[in-house]
Amino acid sequence: MSVDRSRVDLEGHRLEVKLTRAACKVEIQVIGESGKILANAAKAFEGAAAGTVLAVDWSPIRAETVSRIEVWGHDTEGNYVGVAITPWNVKIDHEEVNFETDSDKIRDAEVPKLEASLDKVKDALAKHQDLKGIALYIAGHTDTVGSPEHNLNLSRKRARAIAAWFRGRGLKIPVAWEGFGEHSPIVKTGDEVAEAKNRRVDYILALDPPRLPQGAVTFGWKAL
């Protein structure tokens, strides 16, 4: 059994599973930071073929950060297998780095912003030093001014530049990056709209790779 960690949607309360044999059902238990159970869910799949994407939803009994999800997959022959995932993540609040038009070069005047962000990353790591395997993910985004292809390439270059800056300052944890262009806006707009909230780079500490947007473009986290 495999769980696509990039497709675990904590906000939408959904995950996707694949079994290596015909599927009977999938059960999940969602556990919060408090250690208490937030949800139990089960869904029957009535012999779905091996390799079929099996989507399971859950309804939490209260709002709380999810720290662990236990998943059990049952096949039609009575066998089952379980796996636990830890979708813990923290977005680092920060001041955005301003780039010159069409540039991915980090100007000297912007470095203090990154230094302040690095301090916040280190503080978060110290606070959660009991968690093993944390990585830093840098996600670049743009508004809709310019062509989608140009914005995608620019967001990737800027995300990589910031990721490289963190790595160059001696950050010991894994660092990965990806650019999403205008494919994941905070504020949905029409084309050629300069929306400041959509021009951003997210800094995410996580145990599992953050969920990737789905669509015509294939995205993937790239390790430095």
Automatic annotation (TrEMBL):
Any one Pfam family match given in the protein's UniProt record, by short name: OmpA
Cellular component terms (Gene Ontology): membrane
Keywords from the UniProt entry: Membrane
UniProt xrefs under PROSITE patterns: OMPA_2 (PS51123)
OmpA-like domain ranges (all copies): 86-209
UniProt name for this protein: OmpA family protein
Protein source organism: Polyangium fumosum
